[in-house]
């Protein structure tokens, strides 16, 4: 009985090669089957799913931290809109953003931290459900490092726009999700063809839905949504997509910087939560 030789895409040239090749026969990359190189260059399918899961887990973890940070303990409400909702003090301590934290308290880092905070179970559920739907397509068309750059920068820019517009306090991953929508709308329009038109129509439906949702439901940060969406389009244009431009060292550097900044800010948020609980 013979067994088929395991094959992978070369992390550098993305051509089909054997998993145990010592050197890619097409581009000469050494040890192309290395898990680290496949993760670094976004060709390991299992690693790609962890980009999505990691973002969701980070949001879920910070939601739990925000509940535990409340000085009066976790409160339950019969109203589903406020069920398991952190109070404003806890959210402000952990890094809620807006015109007050940014311009009055000079907490510029909150432009990044606020994207990992949510105001209740329904808030985080809907944001993460939307991200779960959109992220695989963004990963496929932009690669993991560009996808994370778009997610992070769009969130920061969306919150900055809303702070300049005078929104006093705001949180949530929706600006980042709108950034992915913007990048995918750009991709669909720029790529064209049957696939591009299909992506443009479907993701464009998400954009229209979020616009209508923001107009009908009070308390929605439409400035943040619009800023994130615009940033996604611009980033999609300048970073390019996989079919047009494979991920390169610059993309990995930008994504790595976004990842390091995110980890640092989340660690700082947890430290503030511990200090607040100890001295509240």
How do the helices and strands line up, and which of them pair or pack?
Blueprint: E1 7-9, E2 16-18, H1 35-40, H2 45-69, H3 88-94, H4 99-104, H5 110-113, H6 121-142, H7 144-164, H8 174-191, H9 193-216, H10 222-239, H11 249-279
Antiparallel strand pairs: 1-2
Helix pairs in contact: 2-6, 2-11, 6-7, 6-8, 7-8, 7-10, 7-11, 8-9, 8-10
> Terminal Cα separation, in Å?
69 Å
The main sheet orders its strands as 1-2
| Range of helix content | 55-70%
The tally of helices reads 11
Question: Rg, please?
Answer: 20 Å
Taken as a percent bin, the fraction of beta residues is under 5%
Largest sheet: 2 strands, antiparallel
Tell me, rounded to a whole number, the average pLDDT.
86
The SSE string, one letter per element, is EEHHHHHHHHHHH
Class computed from helices, strands and strand pairing: mainly alpha
Shape: globular
**Strands, count:** 2
Point out poorly predicted stretches: none
Give a verbal description of the structure.
There is one protein chain. The protein is globular. The model has no long low-confidence stretch (mean pLDDT 86). It is mainly alpha-helical and 280 residues long. Strand 1 and strand 2 (16-18) form a beta hairpin. The longest helix is centred in the C-terminal third of the chain and has 31 residues, at 249-279. It has helices at 35-40, 45-69, 88-94, 99-104, 110-113, 121-142, 144-164, 174-191, 193-216, 222-239, 249-279; strands at 7-9, 16-18. The chain has a two-stranded antiparallel ribbon with strand order 1-2. 65% of the residues lie in helices and 2% in strands. Helix 2 runs antiparallel to helix 6 (121-142). It is built from eleven helices and two strands.
